[in-house]
Specification:
Elements (H helix, E strand, L loop, with lengths): L9 E13 L3 E3 L2 E3 L3 E3 L7 H13 L5 H4 L12 H14 L2 E11 L9 H12 L6 E6 L9 E12 L7
Parallel strand pairs: 5-6
Antiparallel strand pairs: 1-4, 1-7, 2-3, 5-7
This protein binds magnesium ion.
Length: 168
């Protein structure tokens, strides 16, 4: 059914949290950073990609990450989160939706985000196949408010309906 709002942009919001654990690879936005701690999790624990994936699924009106890729399913053990993101983008594309911008806030004490911000942003833009000026990422610290070390990511994405080619 079509309606007057069909071509309006759609906003998606995603959020993720992982404990940080000594000796785990520190993967953020698909980039491995040098850090003594990394996100614990069933998959690679990439909180940035998990938040963006849920934002894409949310904007597209699809089930969330945990529903599509349950952590009880052994096939997702240590899975690369890039697979989740690309699967979500493909599902959205199947509905005629493509991502046009993304913004992320990352909260953690380790690693420090600022020295890696440009590299993370470039990596995200590459993952989303977007120009750099439509992808952003900001790092914040917990200000010592957490009793356990963790990493938290919040993402918003904007998605647009790609006009279908009409008969020529
Ligand atoms: Mg997660």
């Amino acid at each position: 059914m079509s309606d007057a709002f069909e071509t309006f942009p759609r906003i998606g919001l995603g959020w993720d949290l992982h404990h940080m654990q000594a000796g785990r690879p520190c993967l953020l936005a698909g980039l491995r950073l040098e850090c003594p701690v990394g996100p614990a999790g069933h998959s690679d624990g990439d909180a940035v990609l998990h938040a963006i994936t849920d934002a894409v699924l949310g904007a597209a009106g699809l089930p969330d990450l945990g529903t599509l890729f349950p952590d009880t399913d052994p096939q997702w053990q240590d899975a690369s989160s890039e697979r989740f993101l690309h699967a979500a983008l493909e599902r959205a594309a199947g509905l005629g939706l493509r991502i046009v911008s993304a913004d992320v806030v990352l909260v953690c004490d380790r690693p420090k985000v600022a020295p890696h911000r440009d590299a993370l942003r470039k990596q995200l833009a590459r993952q989303l196949d977007l120009p750099l000026d439509r992808v952003n990422l900001k790092g914040k610290t917990t200000e010592g408010t957490r009793t356990e070390e963790c990493i938290e990511a919040t993402a918003v994405v904007l998605m647009m309906l790609v006009p279908r080619a009409g008969p020529s």
